[in-house]
Specification:
By secondary structure, the chain is mainly alpha-helical. It is 89% helix and 0% strand.
């Protein structure tokens, strides 16, 4: 059972679009056809999988861990989000700011995942054909 769960999580990290689809389908069944709410649950639930997938792709392509850089990126983008939210509303609401931050992270890391995936495929093909 432990190996099955580990394999399932590994697949969700390597192919995070599957995690998004799985969470969306599960949420849609739970919320009885409320697609908008299920979509938001899937975005919130799959963001971590996209973050891990980007980290795995960065390691696979560049043969180096980028954990420190990713942590700095998270901190800086959260601080920028707080400042922008404060400028817009004049008040800081950490729960609301974090919700917006998490959705922006989903967009950024989904885009980064797709870009790194395309770059990695092209890079690997060029390495294979150049040798």
């Amino acid at each position: 059972m432990k190996e099955l769960l580990t394999s399932f999580i590994a697949i969700m990290v390597v192919v995070p679009f599957l995690s998004f689809f799985f969470i969306f389908t599960l949420a849609k069944a739970v919320f009885k056809r409320k697609g908008r709410r299920a979509f938001h649950v899937a975005v919130n639930g799959s963001t971590m999988f996209f973050i891990f997938a980007v980290h795995v792709l960065l390691q696979a392509i560049f043969h180096r861990s980028y954990i420190v850089e990713l942590l700095i990126f998270f901190i800086v983008t959260f601080m920028i989000g707080i400042v922008l939210y404060w400028k817009k509303t004049g008040d800081v609401s950490l729960p609301r700011t974090f919700k917006l931050y998490w959705k922006v992270q989903f967009l950024l890391f989904t885009t980064a995942y797709m870009g790194l995936l395309i770059y990695g495929i092209i890079h690997r093909v060029m390495v294979v054909f150049s040798s």
